[in-house]
Amino acid sequence: MNATRASEPNAGSNAKFLLPFLGAxxxxxxxxxxxxxxxxxxxxxxxGGSSSVWATCVMFFQLLLxxxxxxxxxxxxxxxxxxxxxxxxxxxxLALGLLVGITRGGVPVLPNEELADLSGDPVPxxxxxxxxxxxxxxxxxxxxxxxxxxWFVRGRxxxxxxxxxxxxxAGSLAGLLTYPFLVERLMSLTQQAWTWFxxxxxxxxFCAAASASALHASSxxxxxxxxxxxxxxPPAAGTPDRENRPVALWIGLSACASVMFLGVxxxxxxxxAPVPFLWVLPLSIYLVSFIAAFAGERWYPRGAAYCLSAxxxxxxxxxxxxxxxxxxxxxxxxxxxxxxxxxxxxLFFICLACHGELYRLRPPPRHLTGFYLAVAGxxxxxxxxxxVVAPRIFPTYLELGLGLLLSFLVLFTCHCRDPIHPWPAQSxxxxxxxxxxxxxxVLALGIQIARTELADFLSALFWKRNFYGTVHLRVFGRGAxxxxxxxxxxxxxxAQFTSDERRRQPTTYYGEASGIGLVMRHFxxxxxxxxxxxxxxxGTISAYARQRDVHRYYEIxxxxxxxxxxxxxxxxxxxxxxxNRRGAxxxxxxxxxxxxxxxDLAERRVAPGSFDVIVLDAFSSDAIPVHLLTVxxxxxxxxxxxxxxxxxxxxxxxxxxxPPVIFALAKEARFRAIxxxxxxxPKRVSNSSWVLLTNCDRxxxxxxxxxxxxxxxxxxxxxxxxxxxxxxxxxx
Length: 732
Description:
Shape: globular
Helix content: 55-70%
CATH architecture of the largest domain: 3-Layer(aba) Sandwich
CATH class of the largest domain: Alpha Beta
Strand order of the largest sheet: 9-8-7-10-11-13-12-14
Mean pLDDT: 81
Low-confidence stretches: 1-8, 220-242, 324-330, 422-426, 681-685
Strand content: 5-15%
CATH superfamily of the largest domain: Vaccinia Virus protein VP39
Number of strands: 14
Number of helices: 22
Structural class: alpha/beta
Distance between the termini: 68 Å
């Protein structure tokens, strides 16, 4: 092809040139977001279904995205077309070869369970698992998009590469939205991994074709052609000077949007459930705000976006995240169906304003790779702040409130730098009024953050936060009614009276009239009773233990284990030690219950059919460990349960009606199920909901059990599996 024909390609050659670029761009973005969800879902059960798992995964992906952009930026700046293609082709081949190598001994993409280490801080082992499973493939996927645009410009200097950017966003959104509604429902994790591997192999083929097309098309051009588009015209009046590169604002705006996105995600996962649907929802909102802002000025009405983001900050503050906190009015719990939309709409408006300002502050085309590098750096900085820094320096979940505060300050800085409605020089009084109003708003927001997040902390006897959430101790009552309560997030996970006369009395959800109380008092014994308990709490159920009984607890949170065993004055509980003094044997196994049970069976530490009773009570705040409530999990419980044993499932929850789910699982596992609902007084903490699964007719026919049995749920739901869990089908 000669230089003249290369500079004036016909429509057919354009179509032939475009096809591999379109395929590689869309497929690469699709795979980039799909693999995040596949790896996140695979790794979640290994760390107890903690809401922090996804935030840590996102931080990892943001850091690799930053690394990919940095590599692409340096490659474009320092290397010519041939060396670029050769280097990136080698990395693609290496990534594909690594995945092929993994397939010989396992499944590609899925993390190696043997690398999970829960003995200390889980974050390093979680990051190591992700790096070993998908590190290099994710890196090359992240770097390919800017490289493809650079190659496109070299091959077709007269054509704009920005349609590829729009196609990349479309592929990202498609990868997100198809996962919870299509991929997760139709395929197991193993099938998902193999399908993704096949897609990655196709992506490598598209990239090879695109690089070959770019080199062939640019062979007639000057080899040193810079990867730049023509200079943009001078900025119009009222727009920022784009030759001025405010790197600090680029990073700050991107970091604020990232903190808000992860803060809202943590809030949803902590109080609902850490499941892919609630991962996808905030991430989709974050991505849509980015797409809308970068679609052009007409998609970002700056004045309206600022007003709506200010309203979002105010609503966030007054809402108090879960309760309506207005001085002089009683507390009002916000329904989940209202709470989730408020969080999501607020996130969208704040992210739209942040990303819109990023678009307005974008540099000329020759600086775009540096701009995207700064944006990726800000996103990674926000991820590090939420996933690594915040759990270590904040006693509670302050990052969402501080994200609101920082977003307000950064957006106000953008306004001061380039006012929405520029004032004439003589109107300094009007500017001063706006500045004073901003200071007042910041102070009001700070006060509300203190009221919503710090009030409980300051009044608690003990407070500590780790990867699995916040745990604190509070004292209730006086005299003989004085009790020490263990709080995990917003939920009371056990309490013990402090007086010697009453400290052995079972309390809260585990009283004698509760479902588990009836099991422990009336279930037929065949000698010493062996009980398996998922979730330790304060160890209250051991108040029922008799001589030679065996209670084996599975607990993942080291703080909870410490508080249940330390016995240091007011900073510990004595249920376990009291049971041991009565001649019972209590054992605590640290780690995720399902993984630990499976390992105990495999290593013969526990024999099949060992337990008379299995108790499931592993909620953290109101979050649901879905992987413990699936058909596969109940098959494991059944293997551990003796014939005619009983499984007791604690189903008390503010937002979800879980008895229909447990009844569906009971039917699938061939158990009879009854619902024991205790509602003496709406204000009493002893109110509880338990579902008991057993085939022991002798137990079910006891008068005490028949009298306590509530009507079976009318709602019929599909049994949950490791690949399917429809939370919103059981929303109250």
